[in-house]
Amino acid sequence: MQVFGLQAGVYRGASWASRLTNRNFIVALMAQVIAGLGFGIAAGLTLYFQTYLWELKAQDILILTLLGIPGPIFGGILAPRLARRFGKKKAAMALFFTSVVFGHTPMFLKLIGVLQLNGTPALLWVLASFTFVQMVCAIAGYILASSMIGDIVEEVQVRTGRRAEGLLTTADSLPSKIVNAIAALIPGLILTAVAFPTKAQPSDRTMELITQVGWLYLPTVLVLFLGSVATWSFYRLDEESHARNLKTIAGDPPP
Fold first, then answer.
1. What percent of the chain clears pLDDT 70, i.e. is strictly above it?
2. Is the pLDDT of residue 35 over 50?
3. What is the rounded CA–CA span in Å between residue 251 and residue 3?
4. Domains located in the chain, CATH noted
5. 7 pairs with which residues across the strands?
6. Which residue among 41, 175, 214, 228 has its CA within the 20 to 30 Å range from the CA of 33?
7. How far is Cα 30 from Cα 165, in angstroms, rounded to an integer?
8. Taking the C-alpha atoms of 51, 57, 59 and 61 in order, what is their torsion angle to the nearest 10 degrees?
9. Do residues 202 and 55 touch, judged by C-beta distance below 8 A?
10. 179: nearest Cα among 17, 30, 49, 46
């Protein structure tokens, strides 16, 4: 009996392990785990940088936070357009790289003494501009990454005869959540390493300490985020391969 153009007997021996050891799935999982470490560290220190490095007021922080609301709209418009022109993998990698650059350039310029706008209206405009581009690119990139993981479902189905959306989704999300939880401990270690006070007030001393935190933070997250982007380069399921998989599933295997 033929199923999806392949022998049904091949499927009987298929196990959950054969689905989780798919090369492209492992690449996607590793990329997200590495990025998860970076996001966990960033989440724990963002408020410290906003308060002590940039010396922002509460309303300024609120404005930067609200910029995340239109992000999915613009990201949803941008992602498919870039995917059609460059392919999902190239577009996703370019978007993630751009997100990393725009997300960390202001801090780098601040640490080397170039961006000295604290206390001026121009600072919020600069941070808002960089933050908006960073958010849109990150969201668009993750839309494409999610689509790429979805394509793996059909690849696994062709090879094993069984769809595994639930299994792959669970296996993909659980490690990332665990990594995020572990990474949340790292900001505390960094703050402890520079003896940052628990009830600090903006001052020359706290600026000196938060600058030290920044120099520990910046190379760490850049290595993680750029490492995650580089990991996607090992993903091998392109649009042509996915189209062949869809034909095979439909009972029309390619010649």
1. 80
2. yes
3. 8
4. 32-232 (1.20.1250.20)
5. 2
6. 214
7. 18
8. -20
9. yes
10. 30
Structural contact between residues 164 and 153, judged by C-beta atoms closer than 8 angstroms: yes
210: which 2 tokens? 């938060």
Exposed / middle / buried, residue 15 (Cβ in 10 Å: 0-12, 13-18, 19+): exposed
d(CA 30, CA 193) in angstroms, rounded, equals: 29
Q: Which residue, 148, 64, 61, 144, is CA-closest to 98? A: 144
User: For residue 212, which of 237, 229, 190, 230 has the smallest C-alpha distance?
Assistant: 190
pLDDT at residue number 163: 64
Record the pTM. Answer: 0.83
Q: Which two tokens stand for residue 135?
A: 């958010």
Number of neighbouring beta carbons within 10 Å of residue 65: 12
Query: Residue 71 in contact with residue 139, Cβ under 8 Å?
Result: yes
Q: How confident is the model at residue 92 (pLDDT cuts 50, 70, 90)?
A: very high
Residue labelled with tokens 């002590």? 52
Q: How far is CA 96 from CA 136, 222, 231, in A?
A: 10, 12, 12
d(CA 111, CA 109): 6
Lookup: tokens for 47: 């408020």
Strand partners, 6: 3
Helices 121-160 and 165-183: crossing angle, nearest 10°? 140
User: How does DSSP classify residue 233?
Assistant: G
Distance CA 247, CA 242 (A): 9
